[in-house]
Every structure is written in structure tokens, then in C-alpha cells.
Automatic annotation (TrEMBL):
Recorded family membership: Belongs to the membrane fusion protein (MFP) (TC 8.A.1) family.
Domain Multidrug resistance protein MdtA-like barrel-sandwich hybrid residues, every copy: 83-201
A molecular-function term among this protein's GO annotations: efflux transmembrane transporter activity
Keyword annotations of the record: Membrane, Transmembrane, Transmembrane helix
Organism: Hymenobacter sedentarius
One GO CC term on file: efflux pump complex
Disordered, as annotated region: 364-398
Transmembrane helix is among the record's keywords: yes
InterPro entries per the UniProt record, alphabetical: Beta-barrel_RND_2, MdtA-like_BSH, RND_pump_MFP
Compositionally biased intervals (Pro residues): 370-380
The protein's name in its UniProt record: Uncharacterized protein
The keyword Metal-binding is assigned to this record: no
Length: 398
């Protein structure tokens, strides 16, 4: 009976060994490829860690010698004035209307002055009496009949009355309202029978006269561009009514001091308008081509190193990282002007990572702009758009 028991036990252990061998083989078949892959991945990671990181770089560009500055302008006539009545009365007639060109001295309106005429008549009568009295006293030949003082007083009275008459006659001459200079009538506030007086209060003027053969464009130039504004500097005058057309202008004067509230320099630009195409009071823009007083360098805004107390950029020199402190100038949004610290041509790291260290070896990759997404083309901006903000245009990075 013992032999069957031994045989059964041997078979049991044999089955156990076979099962263990099968499971061991299956384990090895699944584990070894995975182990090899992890080993290869770790080796590749070690190699990548030991290799120099790749950074995207772009070259800093030297700013151009000139910059374009476009600003809104307040357009006025070369000469303009309000014409007021100089005598009290009523409008008898008028002969000039809006849009009419007039010559210097041309009669614009005539005023009837009944009260002034009455004053002149009374003054002349008083003058006649004073003249008669003086002549009577001067004709007395009897010595001692009149004193020298009485004769002088009569003479002074006669002179005063004569001066009063001359003054009233001079005032009567203003019954004819004339143009002070050649120009065009832009406002008329008179009608036949209207009551007028010699007041110059706002709104009491009879006409407004403007000279439009030249226009004056007043521009508020920001402080950082003010040093480049000089008399004689040429400028482009732009109006929405003539898209794509440029009218030549010239700086004739500037205020010489900045406005304390806006920190801007009032600048006057003269624009010839012999053909009368431009209208005073219309919206316009003036485009300056300003020489740079201190040419700088233009860099992308995302080249700045984030954080820290100093403004820095990361440059690549001989394959190694070098941090350079800069002095920023004007901010153009996507671009930044550098006043000091760069000369132009340096390779700048875009979006520098925080783990880059001074002197670290890196590989460089030139920046390539992202392709524009497919779709309909964007609408073109309106030329000389009145709602467009003032623009300063540096050289754009390519």
C-alpha cells in the first residue's frame, strides 16, 4: 500500500514544478521587455539631461535713424476773425453771405444810425456856438475889456467841441462794415432790420471771416518726441476725405514749453491750400518723420527675463547663456526699445526659462513666426481713420 502513495506524491510535486515553470516563463516573457524599455528610456533621459538644452533665439535689431509718429490735429484757417459792429443802429443792407470770397475793405453790410446822426447834429450846433463865442471874444480890440483867461477858455471850449464832432464823425464812418482782410465768409449773423450795437460780447458778431489759402494744424506732441520737433521739419497732412493722398506740411513754430497737465508740446504745422481742397475745422492727422535723438535697439517684449529687480535679457554668446542688464525705453506693445545695454545683432532667448543659468551651454533654434490661421482675410483698416489712436511706428522685427 505504500508504493501508490509515494507515486501520487511524486506526481503532485511534478505538477507543481511544471505550473511554477510555466508561470515563471510567462513572468519572464512579460517583465523582460518592459524592463528593457524602462532601461532604454532611463538611458535616453540621462543622455538628454547631459545634452545642452535647445532655446529659441531672435536677433536684436538696431532702431532706424528716424521714427514715424502720427497724431491727431486741430485744423484752423491761416487767419480768422469775427467782425463786429462799431456803431449802434439797424442793419440797412448786407452784401456778403457764407461761402463768398471777399477782398480787404469790401463792404459787408451797412448800418443805419439814427441816434448817432442826431448826436452829430447836436454836436455841430454846439460847435457853431463855441466858434461864434470864441470869434466874438477874439475880435474885441479894446484893451482890458476881456482877460487872457477868458479868451483861452473860449478857445479850449471851441477845440473840445470840434474834437467831439470829429469823434462822432469817425464813429459814423463805421456804418459801413468792411472786411479786414481778403478771405471767405464762414458765418453770417445779420438780417435787414436787425438791431446791432458796438458790443463785442460772444455771439454778437456779424460775420466770421477766414483766410484758407493756408491752414494751420495744431498738434500735441508727447514729451519723449518733443526734442526732435524743430521749425522747418516736414510733415504729412492726412484727411479722411482723400484716402491715400498726402498733403505736404511744414512745422513753422512750437510752443517752447510743455503743457504741465498733458506733458505735450503744442506744435503748429502749416499746410498750403491754394486750391481750397482742405477745410478748416475738419478732423486730420499729421505724420511726422522724426530723427532719433538717441537711436536704440528694438527687442521682442517676450525676450525679457521674468522676475528680479533689474530688467534683463538672456543672450547666447559662443553657445552659452549670458544675462545682460538693459535700460528700457519706449514700450510699443509687442516690442520694446532698449536705450542702453544692447548694440543690435545680439541673439536673444525668447521666453527664457527660469532654470537657465549663467554660462550654461545651449543649442539655438531660430525663431519662426507661426503660420496665419486659414480663414477670410481681416478687414483692411480705414485710411486716416478718425478713431485711430496716435501711433509711433518703429521698425518691425521680421
Amino acid at each position: 500500500m505504500s508504493e501508490p502513495t509515494t507515486s501520487s506524491s511524486s506526481r503532485f510535486w511534478l505538477i507543481i514544478l511544471i505550473v511554477l515553470a510555466v508561470f515563471g516563463g510567462l513572468f519572464l516573457l512579460g517583465y523582460m521587455p518592459r524592463h528593457n524599455r524602462e532601461k532604454a528610456r532611463d538611458s535616453e533621459a540621462s543622455q538628454n539631461a547631459a545634452a545642452a538644452p535647445t532655446v529659441t533665439v531672435v536677433a536684436a535689431q538696431a532702431a532706424p535713424d528716424t521714427t514715424t509718429l502720427t497724431l491727431p490735429a486741430d485744423t484752423r484757417s491761416n487767419r480768422e476773425t469775427f467782425v463786429f459792429a462799431r456803431a449802434n443802429g439797424y442793419i440797412k443792407s448786407w452784401s456778403a453771405d457764407i461761402g463768398q470770397k471777399v477782398k480787404a475793405g469790401q463792404v459787408l453790410a451797412e448800418v443805419t444810425t439814427p441816434e448817432l446822426d442826431q448826436q452829430i447834429a447836436e454836436a455841430r450846433a454846439t460847435l457853431g456856438l463855441a466858434r461864434t463865442s470864441y470869434n466874438r471874444l477874439a475880435g474885441i480890440g479894446l484893451p482890458g475889456a476881456i482877460s487872457k483867461q477868458e479868451l483861452d477858455a473860449a478857445q479850449a471850449q471851441y477845440a473840445a467841441q470840434r474834437a467831439g464832432v470829429q469823434q462822432l464823425l469817425a464813429q459814423q464812418a463805421f456804418r459801413r462794415v468792411t472786411a479786414p482782410f481778403s478771405g471767405i465768409v464762414t458765418q453770417r449773423n445779420v438780417e435787414v432790420g436787425s438791431l446791432v450795437n458796438s458790443s463785442n460780447t460772444p455771439g454778437s458778431h456779424l460775420y466770421k471771416l477766414e483766410q484758407t489759402d493756408k491752414l494751420r494744424a495744431y498738434v500735441q506732441v508727447p514729451q519723449n518726441f518733443a526734442p526732435a520737433i524743430k521749425p522747418g521739419l516736414t510733415a504729412d497732412f492726412l484727411v479722411p476725405e482723400f484716402p491715400g493722398r498726402v498733403f505736404a506740411g511744414r512745422v513753422v513754430r512750437e510752443a517752447g514749453a510743455l503743457d504741465a497737465n498733458t506733458r505735450t508740446l503744442l506744435t503748429e504745422v502749416e499746410v498750403p491750400n491754394a486750391r481750397g481742397e482742405l477745410r478748416p475745422g475738419s478732423y486730420a492727422q499729421v505724420r511726422f518723420h522724426l530723427p532719433r535723438t538717441s537711436p536704440g535697439v528694438l527687442i521682442p517684449a517676450n525676450a525679457l527675463v521674468p522676475g528680479g529687480t533689474d530688467v534683463r535679457v538672456a543672450t547666447v554668446q559662443d553657445g552659452k547663456v549670458h544675462y545682460q542688464t538693459i535700460t528700457p525705453g519706449r514700450d510699443f506693445g509687442s516690442q520694446l526699445e532698449v536705450a542702453q545695454g544692447l548694440k543690435g545683432g545680439e541673439l536673444l532667448v525668447l521666453n527664457p526659462a527660469e532654470n537657465l543659468t549663467e554660462g550654461q551651454a545651449v543649442q539655438t533654434r531660430a525663431y519662426k513666426p507661426a503660420p496665419k490661421p486659414a480663414g477670410p482675410p481681416p478687414a483692411k483698416p480705414r485710411l486716416n481713420d478718425p478713431d485711430a489712436p496716435r501711433v509711433s511706428s518703429p521698425a518691425l522685427l521680421k
